[in-house]
Structures are given as C-alpha cells and as structure tokens.
C-alpha cells in the first residue's frame, strides 16, 4: 500500500494524473511478484519512492520540513537495505551542490548530519540488543558483498546483464510506454537515476532481478507521462498542424500522380496514392481536411484584414470582409466540419488507443504475475508443507535433513 500512496504524491508533484501513474505501477507484473519476495526489497523500493516525494527539487518551493522528511525516509531505506545508498549518493550530492549557494546551506548540512548520525546510532543500538554485541550491519554488508565478493557464491552474470536482460524482463511490456515517455519527457532526472542504479549494480558480479526493484516505480513515472499525453485532448493548434500535414501529404501525392501521367508511365500499385477502392474513404477525409485547412487560412487572412481596417479607422463589419460561417465550416460546435468536432474526434481516437493499450498491458502483465505468484518454483514450498504434515502425524521426535542450497526452502512448520 505504501508504493501506490508514494506514487500518488510523486504524480501530484509532477503534475501527472494519479490514475496514469498508479495504473502503470499496479499493472507491473514484477511489482506484484516482488511485493513479498523479499519484504526487504519491496520495503526499500517503497521508502525510496516516499523519500523522492519529499525531495526538495530546485524548481519547486517546498517547506523546510520536506528536507527532514526526505532525509528521514532516505536514511530508513539505507537501514533496511544498504544498496539504497546508491540512489541517495547521487541525489544528496546534487542537493548539497546547489544548496551551498543559498542562505540555508548551513541548516541543510546540519540536518544531514543530525538525521544521518541519529539513524545510524539507532540502528546500531537495535543490532546490539538482538546480536548481543556491537555490529554495524551496513559495514558488514559492504565488506562481504562488495569488498570480498562473497555474494558470488550465489552465481555471477556478465556486466551487461542488467541492460539487456534484467531491466527489460522486469519492465516486460511496459518497456514500450516507458521508452516513449522517457523520449518525450522534458525533465529526465529520474531517468538519470535509473541509469545510475543499473550502472552501479552492473559492477557487482552477483545479479538478481529483485535488486533493481527500486527502478520500477521510477520507470512508471515515464509510463504515466506517456499515458497522460495519450489521453489528453489535442489542442486547436495541434489539430491545425495535423490538417496542414495531411494537406501537404495530399498535395505531394497529387503532384506525384500528375507527374506520372505527364510522363505517360504506367502506375504501379504503390504509386496510386489513395485511388484504390479500399482507400476511397481515407481520401475523402483528407480532401475534407484540405478544404478545411484552406478555409482556416482564409479566415486568418480575413481576420488580418479586419485588424488592418480597424487600425486605419475604417468600420467594416464582418459581412463586408467576407465572413461566412457556412463557407468557413464553423456553423456550430457540433458541426462535423468544425475544428472542435475534429478535436473531439482525435480525442476519442486517442482514448480508444489508450483503452486498447491498457487492455494489452493488463493481459500481458497479470497473466505472468499469476503464474509467477502461484505456480513458478512452488515445488520447494509444497515439499516443505508435505514434510510438515507428515511429521505432525508422527508421535515423538522427528529429524529431517535438508541437503539443499541456502534460501532454497522455507523452513516453516
């Protein structure tokens, strides 16, 4: 539940529709699969997204408390899994770099030191209570996995594994709206964070899909951007641009056909433009668009003449200047020849495309989620349950020897 709530906060700050972002987040098959596998990874991802929702972005005026909340959740994410520090090294350095030129730099630096040292002290005391001695888990994690390379006993992969296998598999079919949204996004800060996480994890020999779970909610931001643009209503300017583009393509096609006729050459099927029977409807629509674009250009010329006449002190009504709503194709807002009607048609076409795409994404993500959650690698769980039920039916002490790799069976009764 924390992940959708944090995604809602980010969508509000980024001026995204919450439905667009949360729909992408909840549709991800990997988010569904990894929400409990393991809890530390899903908790790390949730805390990272929550901390990002409080991050003091330079272009937004936020309260001073947002810095404290950002650092608090960021520190908690590092306590849960020290790999979260890879995200905050980049963002915190960036924050301090531009904050040093402000009057609040001393307070910001003091907040960093207080929250960082307090969180580490509390973590050390909790570990002291449970382990019975002073142990710094974060330091041991770094020493064992990075310095000694102890994680390699669980398997190794080449350095490019996250780029060509890990991240594409984790994203699944959501990779396509992610790439389109990232391409069209104006602010690519989160994209650089994703790239930094993948690059730093690529240096470690042991790689797993769950290690890059924090990149999924960040990537969903760009999926939300794409869906919001897809569902938005096109502006009048965009409709006019589409009309002019269609008109230009139509004229280009006609000129090619005329050139072919003048040369006396035979027309090939691919050079016939829209002459085929199956393209008659498309040709008719383009002709209507071309006529509307010409009338729109005429209306702009008439409006220009009207302004010139008014500036010269002449009082000529729209009737003398040639205004004719019937000729201009703007009889009323409901007329199919009006710009508003075309705008609505394009909007409905976009919504239809969004519905089809959402259905495809839902099917291609929910089916793998059901398979991986209910069927995939369930053998060890079923064996453990069978052994537990068999041992419960026996009276007395029962010994069972597990000759299995580490973490391969859940040892539950």
TrEMBL record:
<feature type="compositionally biased region" description="Basic and acidic residues">
    <location>
        <begin position="294"/>
        <end position="330"/>
    </location>
</feature>
<dbReference type="GO" id="GO:0000026">
    <property type="term" value="F:alpha-1,2-mannosyltransferase activity"/>
</dbReference>
<feature type="region of interest" description="Disordered">
    <location>
        <begin position="254"/>
        <end position="279"/>
    </location>
</feature>
<dbReference type="GO" id="GO:0005789">
    <property type="term" value="C:endoplasmic reticulum membrane"/>
</dbReference>
<dbReference type="Pfam" id="PF03901">
    <property type="entry name" value="Glyco_transf_22"/>
</dbReference>
<feature type="transmembrane region" description="Helical">
    <location>
        <begin position="161"/>
        <end position="182"/>
    </location>
</feature>
<keyword id="KW-0808">Transferase</keyword>
<keyword id="KW-0328">Glycosyltransferase</keyword>
<dbReference type="GO" id="GO:0006506">
    <property type="term" value="P:GPI anchor biosynthetic process"/>
</dbReference>
<feature type="transmembrane region" description="Helical">
    <location>
        <begin position="189"/>
        <end position="205"/>
    </location>
</feature>
<keyword id="KW-0812">Transmembrane</keyword>
<feature type="region of interest" description="Disordered">
    <location>
        <begin position="293"/>
        <end position="337"/>
    </location>
</feature>
<keyword id="KW-0256">Endoplasmic reticulum</keyword>
<keyword id="KW-1133">Transmembrane helix</keyword>
<keyword id="KW-0472">Membrane</keyword>
<feature type="transmembrane region" description="Helical">
    <location>
        <begin position="109"/>
        <end position="127"/>
    </location>
</feature>
<comment type="similarity">
    <text>Belongs to the glycosyltransferase 22 family.</text>
</comment>
<dbReference type="InterPro" id="IPR005599">
    <property type="entry name" value="GPI_mannosylTrfase"/>
</dbReference>
<protein>
    <recommendedName>
        <fullName>Mannosyltransferase</fullName>
        <ecNumber>2.4.1.-</ecNumber>
    </recommendedName>
</protein>
<feature type="transmembrane region" description="Helical">
    <location>
        <begin position="69"/>
        <end position="97"/>
    </location>
</feature>
């Amino acid at each position: 539940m924390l992940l959708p709530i944090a995604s809602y906060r980010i969508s509000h700050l980024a001026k995204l529709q919450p439905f667009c972002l949360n729909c992408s987040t909840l549709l991800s098959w990997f988010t569904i699969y990894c929400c409990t596998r393991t809890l530390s990874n899903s908790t790390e991802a949730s805390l990272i997204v929550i901390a990002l929702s409080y991050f003091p972005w330079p272009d937004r005026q936020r309260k001073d408390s947002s810095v404290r909340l950002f650092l608090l959740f960021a520190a908690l994410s590092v306590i849960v899994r020290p790999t979260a520090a890879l995200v905050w090294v980049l963002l915190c350095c960036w924050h301090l770099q531009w904050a040093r030129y402000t009057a609040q730099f001393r307070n910001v630096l003091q907040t960093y030191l207080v929250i960082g040292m307090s969180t580490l002290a509390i973590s050390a005391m909790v570990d002291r209570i449970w382990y019975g001695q002073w142990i710094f888990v974060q330091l041991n994690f770094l020493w064992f996995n990075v310095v000694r390379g102890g994680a390699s006993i669980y398997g190794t992969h080449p350095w490019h594994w996250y780029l060509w296998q890990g991240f594409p598999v984790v994203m699944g079919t959501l990779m396509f709206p992610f790439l389109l949204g990232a391409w069209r996004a104006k602010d690519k800060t989160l994209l650089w964070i994703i790239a930094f996480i993948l690059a730093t994890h690529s240096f470690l020999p042991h790689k797993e899909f769950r290690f890059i779970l924090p990149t999924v909610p960040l990537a969903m931001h760009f999926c939300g951007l794409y869906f919001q643009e897809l569902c938005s209503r096109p502006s009048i300017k965009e409709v006019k641009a589409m009309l002019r583009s269609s008109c230009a393509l139509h004229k280009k096609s006609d000129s090619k056909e005329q050139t072919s006729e003048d040369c006396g050459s035979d027309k090939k099927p691919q050079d016939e433009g829209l002459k085929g029977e199956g393209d008659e409807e498309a040709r008719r629509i383009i002709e209507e668009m071309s006529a509307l674009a010409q009338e729109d250009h005429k209306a702009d010329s008439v409006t220009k003449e009207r302004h010139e006449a008014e500036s010269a002190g002449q009082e000529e009504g729209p009737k003398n200047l040639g205004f004719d709503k019937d000729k201009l194709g703007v009889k009323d807002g409901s007329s199919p020849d009006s710009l508003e009607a075309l705008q609505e048609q394009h909007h409905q076409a976009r919504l239809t495309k969004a519905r089809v795409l959402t259905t495809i994404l839902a099917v291609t993500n929910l089916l793998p989620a059901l398979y991986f959650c209910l069927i995939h690698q369930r053998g060890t769980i079923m064996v453990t349950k069978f052994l537990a039920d068999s041992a419960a039916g026996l009276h007395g002490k029962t010994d069972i020897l597990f000759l299995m790799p580490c973490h391969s069976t859940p040892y539950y009764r």
